Amino acid sequence: MIKYLGSKRTLIPALTELGRASGAKTALDLFTGTTRVAQAFKRIGITVTASDVASYAECFAKTWIEIDASQTNQLELTLALAELSALPGKAGYFTEKFCLEARFFQPRNGERIDAIRERIESDYRDTWLYYPLLTSLLLAADRVDSTTGIQMAYLKSWASRSGKQLELRDPELIPGAGFSIRGDALAVAKDLPAVDLAYLDPPYNQHRYFGNYHIWESLVRWDKPETYGIANKRIDARDSSMKSPFNSKKTMPSALAQLVSELNCETMVLSYNNESWLSRSDLLDIASTRGHVEILDFDFKRYVGSQIGVFNKAGLRVGVPGARRNIEHVVIAGERSTVKRMIASVEQ
Ligand SMILES: C[S@@+](CC[C@H](N)C(=O)[O-])C[C@H]1O[C@@H](n2cnc3c(N)ncnc32)[C@H](O)[C@@H]1O
Question: Could you report the per-residue pLDDT of 43-85, keeping only the tens digit for each?
Fold first, then answer.
C-alpha cells in the first residue's frame, strides 16, 4: 500500500469488526483512497463498491476490489511482472520531470519506471493485467521515493530508501466480488444502487489530494501533462474544477450533509478527525438524518503510557479523555439495533 494522508491503516481492525457486526452483504467505500477499507470489507465476504475521484485510487480499486482473484490466472501476472522487471531503463517523461527537473526519484529508478510504464501501455492496455501491473509499479515507485510522504515537495538530500532498486512485487489480488467507480462523491452518490453499509472518509482539510499525489495521478493516466512549480505538478492541478467542496471550510459542512442525506444505504459509517472543521455536535446533526447515531472515538496514541486506562485495547474511549491531539471519530448511523450491535462488537 502507498504512503497516504488520512489512510485508515490503524482503524482497519475496528472497521472490519463494524462491517461484520453490521451484517452487511453489500457496501460502499465512497472516498476509497488506498482502498484499504474496501479491501477489509471484501475480505469478510461483503460485495464492495469502491469510489474516489483520483485516477490512482481507481487503479487500486480495479486491482484489489474489481478483480476476483479466484477467477484469474496468477501465472500470467507472475510472468508479466518478470518480463517488466527485466526491462532495461529508458529515460522519458517520468525521468525528465520527476528525477532531473524535480528530484523525487533517483534517475536509474526513474528510467526503469519510464520503460515499464511504456511497456504496460503498449502491451497490456487491453488485458486484465493492466491495472494489477500499474498498481505493482506505483507501489514499487512509492518504496523508492524521496519525499516525506506527499508530493508537494521532494527532500533536499536523497531519502535513503530512494537509493534502493525499484522492485515490482505481486500486488496480491483478493478473491471475491466488487466494483470500482471514479468520480466526485456528490455526483456519483445519488445514482448508486442501494447498499447495506456505506463508509465515508472524506478529506479533513484544505490540502487537496490531487496536488499531494500528482505524480501518481500522472503515472496512472500517462497523459504526460505540462507541469509547473518546483514540484512539477500537473498544470490542471491549478484548475478550479479540480477543487473538492470537501477541501473548503465554507463548503464542506453542506457538501457532507447533502451527501449523507442522499446516500442509499441502511447503515452509514463516517470517519472524521477532531483536527478538522466539524465539531462532534455538527457530526451528530448531520448523521441524525439517517436514524440512531453513536460516535466512537479512537486515539492513535493509545499505546502511550499516560493514556492507558482511558482507552480499552481496541482503542475505544472508555473514560473521559482530557485534551487530545488526534482523535478519529467513527460515526455510526442507522437502525437502532444495528448500531447498538456494531458498537458492542468493538467494545468487547
Ligand atoms: C481521507 S482520504 C481516504 C483514505 C482512505 N479511506 C484510505 O484508508 O486510504 C480522502 C479521499 O477522498 C478523495 N476525494 C477528495 N475529494 C473527493 C470528492 N469530491 N469525491 C470523491 N473523492 C474525493 C481523495 O482522493 C482521497 O482519496
Answer: 999 999 999 999 999 999 999 999 999 999 999 999 999 999 9
| 163, three cell numbers | 537509493
pLDDT tens for residues 270-289? 998 877 788 888 889 999 99
> Helices 130-143 and 107-124 meet at what angle, rounded to 10?
170
Domains delineated in the chain: 1-69+180-205+252-348 (3.40.50.150), 73-172+209-242 (no CATH)
Residues in contact with ligand 1 (CB, 6 Å cut-off): 4, 6-8, 31-34, 36-37, 52-54, 57, 184-185, 201-203, 209, 244, 246
Residue closest by Cα to atom 26 of ligand 1: 33
Instruction: List the end-to-end C-alpha distance of the chain, in Å, as a whole number.
Output: 29
Q: pLDDT tens for residues 124-149?
A: 999 999 999 999 999 999 999 999 99
Return the ligand 1 atom nearest residue 4 CA.
9
Distance in Å, CA 344 to ligand 1 centroid: 28
